[in-house]
Write a structure and sequence with these properties.
Layout lengths: L1 H24 L11 H12 L2 H34 L1 H14 L8 H8 L3 H25 L3 H9 L4 H39 L4 H10 L3 H29 L4 H8 L1
Length: 257
């Protein structure tokens, strides 16, 4: 079954590449706006041979990784604290509901005002966007804890942190891993957006320069790189999720199938 899915995916990708080559060459779309795939691939090869490209890629990955790490740690810690201390959860509920819907891009003026085009501007947007993905999943996971298991742990005299470790955390871990996977994708989106809009060093800033200088094939080549980067991050996040949840019924059932 997996072999068939892979074959269908490869066929779909091949068809997309063929269309991308033919449509501009047939004049259906102006090549000034959408060059043939062969020109994009050629531009991609030129980019890969440029040391400035690898520097930009490193800047993007640095902002993404640091922001994601801060967001994951903060989301887990805050989520556990809010779940362990009921009064704290009630006191912050309205604040969370107010802050959570605010789009991260709305903070771009604040980021520019505070940090300009430095890495801190990227981190501000990435952490803010990814934090909510992790926090909400932690809260949902704790809410899904079996009350019988919770009461049993209490009856055996387990303290607060012992219950967190042996009851709450195993139950919430599938939700946490989902939050991390979503946060990884969101963090990349915000890192590229911050670089594109603010001008912070990275692939986004390089895309903006290519666009303003009318280097259209190079611009599309960089967009392809960001897409491949997102694909690799998603595959890596799913791999980590499967390994971390190898004991969980959902992963065992997936492997069995």
């Amino acid at each position: 079954m997996r072999g068939e899915n892979a074959a269908l995916g490869a066929a779909g990708l091949a068809g997309f590449l063929v269309l991308g080559e033919l449509i501009p060459r047939l004049g259906l779309v102006k090549q000034e706006y959408f060059p043939p795939i062969s020109r994009i691939v050629e531009a991609l090869g030129t980019e890969v041979g440029d040391s400035a490209f690898w520097t930009a890629l490193g800047d993007t990955l640095t902002g993404w990784a640091l922001g994601l790490a801060i967001a994951v740690v903060a989301g887990i810690v805050v989520g556990v604290l809010l779940s362990v201390v009921p009064y704290l959860r009630e006191a912050t509920a309205s604040t969370i509901e107010f802050l959570r819907p605010i789009p991260s891009v709305a903070l771009i003026p604040l980021a520019v005002l505070l940090y300009g085009t430095q890495l801190q501007s990227v981190l501000l947007l990435v952490v803010y966007a990814a934090f909510w993905q992790v926090l909400l999943q932690v809260l949902y996971g704790v809410r899904d804890v079996d009350p019988v298991a919770e009461e049993t742990a209490r009856s055996y005299g387990l303290g607060t942190w012992a219950r967190v470790r042996h009851v709450m955390w195993p139950s919430a871990l599938p939700y946490v891993m989902t939050g991390v996977r979503l946060a990884a994708a969101v963090a990349l989106i915000l890192a590229i957006t911050a670089e594109l809009v603010i001008g912070a060093p990275g692939l986004g800033a390089r895309i903006a320069v290519a666009q303003t200088s009318q280097a259209v094939p190079e611009m599309y080549a960089l967009v392809v790189v960001t897409g491949l980067l997102g694909l690799l991050i998603n595959i890596g996040a799913r791999t980590v999720e499967r390994r971390a949840l190898a004991w969980h019924q959902s992963v065992r059932g997936e492997v069995a199938v």
